[in-house]
């Protein structure tokens, strides 16, 4: 959505004139989510005075901030000890949230950033949580993340190893970075596909440091789109409402059973891949919901996977 400003006025007033059904409070919340650009630059404040001729633009999927359902989590796998859910963007990882949905004894084994989607393990009691944390501490859980990153990644794969520590703050959020002191962080990564000034990368963090993947990708010169906490400029013009990072797969053993649980790519990352002209014909497995005997989801295959199989690449009109 893009408009040209007809006369000087505050940004929130301009948006109310174009999106009349939303209150000023709702529009300010929208701006805080980094979904508005003025002349190509992110604007977070409704009090900003826009001038005649300014180009005001909203991210293509800005409405999801108002329509997405954050009150529930899709159950991907469950046994007598724990369940694994598919977390949506915007859902805050708090034990209180989990207990409200599942029951008073449930608790999170680990956490994902608020805007990161994907697989999250929820223990059914504290005893199970401690056993699961011990497995994490021994690095016996293999975690896979998918990220749409800025720029064309030239190398096929690699490993990033550094010491991560607190380096500053951005809009009240801690900034982490590599330096001479900090906790050891190791991330294996693999380039899956490239497009127009963007790439799809699979990351496997060996350690579980805060913002580890986000920091390592940014320090490689390929920040996650659009992770403004770790990059102020991007080569890709693609405009998203959140950093495009997804926890896609967990592999580990529990009570002698080998588990391999996956979560398909969420719709906003699919749209980003299309918008960035990233080839996807060879990546149909990323769109599938895994079939598992203990799966709680009856729909085992995403319809979008069938579409990927039909063509070698989705072609966005801007790519032609």
Characterise the protein shown here.
This protein is α+β, with helices and mostly antiparallel strands. The protein has 8 helices and 17 strands. It folds into 2 domains: 2-67, Roll (Structural Genomics Hypothetical 15.5 Kd Protein In mrcA-pckA Intergenic Region, Chain A); 139-319, Pseudouridine synthase (2-Layer Sandwich), CATH 3.30.2350. It is 21% helix and 32% strand. The strands form 3 sheets. Strands 7, 8, 9, 10, 11, 12, 13, 14, 15, 16 and 17 form an 11-stranded mixed beta sheet that branches. The protein has a 4-stranded antiparallel beta sheet with strand order 1-6-3-4, with no helix packed on it. Strands 2-5 form a two-stranded antiparallel ribbon. A hairpin with a 2-residue loop joins strand 16 (245-254) and strand 17 (257-262). The longest helix has 12 residues, at 126-137. It is globular.
